[in-house]
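Appendix B, example 12.
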Amino acid sequence: MIEIDGRRLELGDIVAVAGGRHKVTLAPSAVERMTASQRSARATAQARPVYGRSTGVGANRSVTLNQADTEVDTHGLNLLRSHAVDAGRALDRETVRAMLTIRLSQLAAGASGINPAVADAVSEMLNADTLPEVREFGGIGTADLPALAGTALTLLGERPTMDGKKVPVPLETWATEDALPFISSSALTIAQAVLAHQRLATLLENLTTVSALTFAAMSGNSEAFAPEVAKAAESDALADVATTLQGLVSGHGKPARIQDPYSLRMLPHALGAVVEELDALKLVLERLVVAGHENPMVFGSVEDGSNGVAHHGLFQMSTLARRIDGLQLALGAACTNALGRISRLCDPAYTGLHRFLAVDDSGQSGVMMLEYVAAAAVGHIRANAQPVSLQTVVLSLGAEEDASFASVSTSRLDSTVRALATVVGVEFLCASRALRLQGRTPGEFASPRFRKAFNAGLSLPADVQDRDLRPDVDAASHLAILPEFGR
């Protein structure tokens, strides 16, 4: 059971709930915070106009709501129904569960003024796995309005769940004062970023180990990872990767060259840049999953008279979009580096084996086509690296004249994760075959992490005759995404 307190939420816990391995519970302190926020919002709304509570939204922000509509909740229901439209393919259960977990955490932060009963209903929906159907197109990086409005309609029973089950605690109606606060969040976009970040962290760890296997198969010169080099590195991440690689390849044998090609020599730069960007994205995500960014933001206390609201633009996920852009650029460069290693594994000049790691030189193609597969995946990753954060759009009669399109960034990042698994899988398959053909054994190497990866490679098919390699790539790519593989 993961306790949601609105103050701290580990990214790994979000993944655990998203995967259906844990349920959630709201901390009593979170309920108290939401209750106090609701009182503060109501008191403020009686004293001044509040966006979405006493006014319309978007270009209708200057429209004062009819008091009768707010008293019978007509406006709130209309807002949810009108904003619930999305399109495209339906998202998977894992992504939707992550979205609900993050939205619950944000509400628990106590800056929305929402009725705690709504948070209770979301918690019950999540634990019962009676999930709303959420589709891919709708958000533009300025709050995931369609996804969350659709969730609200599912809680009301107006829209079916993914599998047609009824939600355990259906809401009878939705107060106007709770409508905008619920949908004013980028929980879906953040959820996609969290899931992609966590998968990438595992892939990067495994890519580092796989690159060490390749390094050994090509008898690389580990002077590039020497402590003196690490000490002079321009970033801590680069230095850490150099140190890690030095440990992984310890005892790999005599180097074949005084100086290696860039795909080996520049490994700390390529992988270190990805580490830096992953760490930077992690810091942003750790703040966003517990941030009360609802617009308007509710603050203060009725008891001491400090209650108020602030109309703001924190829902604009421009920082998140820029961080993802930076990560995509680093991944694009790292994948070019990986493609260079795969190419050289096919070259007898670097491995001492037959070309394309074939069984002999009689014209068999060996792993020739794996280089093509990896290149296709790398091309996809590099296309995804085109910056998204420069995009914008003007909507709602000009009232909303900018958008971060962070939702596009996170969708692309998910695509990159899937492509990267193929790249890592192909290099793993080629490096393992090369080591096997060279007659190398895990016991030659000092690093337990290296030996574990080597042994995992030995579980792949040993037959090097020309044959259908699709099952081999599938098996290697599956190993590449396992947290246990690279540790």
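The CA atoms of residues 80 and 152 lie 7 Å apart. The chain has two domains: 2-185, 192-286+317-480.
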